[in-house]
Design goal:
This protein is mostly helical and about 70 residues long. Helix content is about 80%, strand content about 0%. It has one domain. It has 4 helices and no strands. It starts with a helix and ends with a helix.
Length: about 70
């Protein structure tokens, strides 16, 4: 990959990370889950919101892992 492709990929991963973070916050209704961790997502009573939070949390973790690998 060229340097410009890597930079574009990093930028897109950063955007995905931000979007996932925003969506998990929306599903939870607050940002407290960031301090409590993943277990806080399972405490969401509404099954649809819980599923959405878990989906976006998975995206968030994937984006963060790829960002870490790329440095």
């Amino acid at each position: 990959m060229s340097i410009s492709q890597i930079k574009n990929f990093q930028r897109r991963l950063s955007l995905l990370e931000q979007e996932a973070l925003l969506e998990v916050n929306r599903a939870c209704g607050h940002e407290l889950w960031q301090r409590l961790g993943f277990d806080a997502l399972d405490a969401i009573e509404d099954p649809e919101r819980r599923a959405r939070a878990n989906y976006y949390f998975g995206q968030l973790q994937t984006a963060r892992q790829l960002i870490e690998v790329l440095g």
